Each structure stands twice: as C-alpha cells, then as structure tokens.
Amino acid sequence: MEPRARAGKNVGKMNFSYQELTQFLIAHGDSRQPLQETMRVLDEVLTEFIQGVSFEASRVAQLAGRQKVKYEDFQFAMRKSPVLLGKAAENKELREALEKQRKMFDEDEYTKEDVDGGTAAGNSSSGKGRKRK
C-alpha cells in the first residue's frame, strides 16, 4: 500500500465543505449552482494534491532528521513547479504581514489602556514577589 493512500475513514466522504468548494468554483468561473459530481471530483483532486505535497514535505523532513515539517520542506517538495512555489511564497509573505499588523494593533491597545488610566508597568501591586528593602 502506498503510504499516502487515502485513509479508509475518508472514502466516500467529502473533506471540504460544500460552501468552500462552491466559492472556489464560482471564483474560477463556474455557475452559482455547480453539479454534485463536479464538487465530488474537485474534493478528491484537492485532497490528493494536499496529501501528496504533505507526504513529500514530511519525507524531506524525515531525510533531514527532523520530526516536524517546516515551510522549507514544502518549498523543496514544490521546487519543480515555479507557479506553486511562487503562490506558497506569496501566502507566506501575506501571513507574516498580517501577523505583524495584528501585533502592532495589540500593542496599540495596550498603550491606549496605559494612557487612559491603566496601571503603568512596574507600579502594579498585585502581591506577587518579595518587597525590596
């Protein structure tokens, strides 16, 4: 049996929701009511693709002597397809930009709380720690 073969528990079941697949098809020019057979085939194709790339990435990580799969392992698994590699890099950059913006937003909230009357750092008397003499 091939290691990346579909697990028996998923045979006959759809792995993606109807709404996700419908949105994907509409975004790529299909009608608003896609055929059920189209949905089933798309689900199988997407599942096979994700499993295949994940299997290759885990194989690369294993050959490198690691148990955890890193982004670089996925890059190596997709190295023969520049389109996929470019999309993966684009998604990584977008994710990093969003994380940076979220962090800045959270820091702005903490700063605003301190200005509005919150306790300043170091002046809190929560009872933790020892008193200095």
Describe this structure in words.
- Helix 2 crosses helix 3.
- 59% of the residues lie in helices and 0% in strands.
- The chain is mainly alpha-helical and 133 residues long.
- The model has no long low-confidence stretch (mean pLDDT 83).
- It starts with 17 loop residues before the first helix and ends in an 18-residue tail after the last helix.
- It folds into 2 domains: 77 residues, Histone, subunit A (Orthogonal Bundle); 35 residues.
- The chain has 4 helices and no strands.
Keywords:
single chain, 133 residues, mainly alpha, Histone, subunit A, 2 domains, 4 helices, extended, transcription, TFIID_TAF13, Transcription initiation factor TFIID subunit 13, protein biosynthesis
Oligomeric state as shown: single chain
CATH topology of the largest domain: Histone, subunit A
Largest sheet at a glance?
none
User: How much strand?
Assistant: under 5%
Name the CATH homologous superfamily of the largest domain: Histone, subunit A
* Number of distinct helices: 4
Radius of gyration: 24 Å
Q: Spell the H/E element sequence.
A: HHHH
CATH architecture of the largest domain: Orthogonal Bundle
* Beginning-to-end CA distance, first to last residue: 71 Å
CATH class membership of the largest domain: Mainly Alpha
> What are the low-pLDDT stretches, counting only 5+ consecutive residues below 50?
none
Range of helix content: 55-70%
Rough outline: extended
| Count of separate structural domains | 2
GO molecular function: protein heterodimerization activity; translation initiation factor activity
Subcellular location: Nucleus
Region (Disordered): 100-133
Keywords: Initiation factor, Nucleus, Protein biosynthesis, Transcription, Transcription regulation
